[in-house]
Amino acid sequence: MKGPAASGAQQELVGAVGGSVIFPLTHSLDRIDSIIWFFESTTLITIQPTTTNKPDTVIVTKNHNKERLDFLHRNYSLKLSKLSKNDSGAYSVQIHSPSLQEPFIQEYGLRVYEHLSKPKITLGLKSNKNGTCVTNLTCFLERGGEDVTYSWKTLGKTSNESHNGSVLPITWTLREKDMTFICMARNPISSNSSNTIFAQKLCEGIAGDLDSTMGLWISLLLIVLILVLIILTMWKQTRKESTEEKRMDTHPEIPNCYPPSGETAQYDTISNPNKTIPEENSVNPLYCTVQIPQKMEKPHSLPTSPDTPKLFIYEKVI
């Protein structure tokens, strides 16, 4: 008899939800007493081959697995159908043979994945300055996002570019040709691509932002010009009024020779010492109208001397 059979390295298998997977079993044993398949620590199926034309004895532990479990008669490899996410885990098989002191053991690891849905793209914070659009595109999946890798294709440049990762940084200007971006998602059983994203549509507000910025500067300039004109107009008006006030201050008012209503006119006779009056005209009197002002304003009054009376005297010689 041979010694204990060495177990082979663990085999990693993948399957798709709703699909099937085969656990390959390779051995060189001529006589086999039994083959037992395990999921984790639970027995799935036991097979007892026969050496006659009679069918092999097959025992399925759980009834709900009867339609899902099958095996290949030539080497007893196991086939598991109608996979679900719950089928992921560790599997093993033990082969008992009279030629072995210890059972032959083979281990497997199964990962069940969903088929990827169409990737979606979200737009990060966008900055439009000086005709340049700067933003980030993020690719994601609504379901089936386990063990997914992302990549990007950028079309439209002198040479097409690729980028790994779910986030793609973008810098695009109006002077450049339109560019297209495509996100591709992959997992061990499937792949899918997003809809095409166009840079021009993505940054369609960039031209509008430039126009609005220009319009804002023009509006500010107009407002400044209007304010300057208003200030100049007010300054000229103030200067004109100040000039008129100064002019009025330099020309005192001419006293009125006629008394205002309510005032009493006083008359006096004044002789002229420098002129000889004929005798026949000596009897002609000389009258003067004197106005007594009610109020004298010091700043605008005529200069007076101590010898000059405070009353204004106007003479009329007849």
UniProtKB/TrEMBL annotation:
Q: Disordered: where is this region? A: 243-262
**Per the database record, which ranges form the Ig-like domain?**
119-199
> Which Gene Ontology cellular-component terms appear in the entry?
external side of plasma membrane
InterPro entries (UniProt xref): CD2/SLAM_rcpt, Ig-like_dom, Ig-like_dom_sf, Ig-like_fold, Ig_V-set
The entry's localization annotation reads: Membrane
| Biased composition annotated in UniProt, kind: Basic and acidic residues | 243-252
Q: Which domain of life is it from?
A: Eukaryota
Any stretches that span the bilayer, and where are they?
A: 214-235
Keywords per UniProt: Glycoprotein, Membrane, Signal, Transmembrane, Transmembrane helix
Q: Which SUPFAM superfamilies match?
A: Immunoglobulin
Q: Name the GO terms of the biological process aspect.
A: T cell activation
- One family name in Pfam for this protein: V-set
Name of the protein in its database record: SLAM family member 7
**Source lineage:** Eukaryota, Metazoa, Chordata, Craniata, Vertebrata
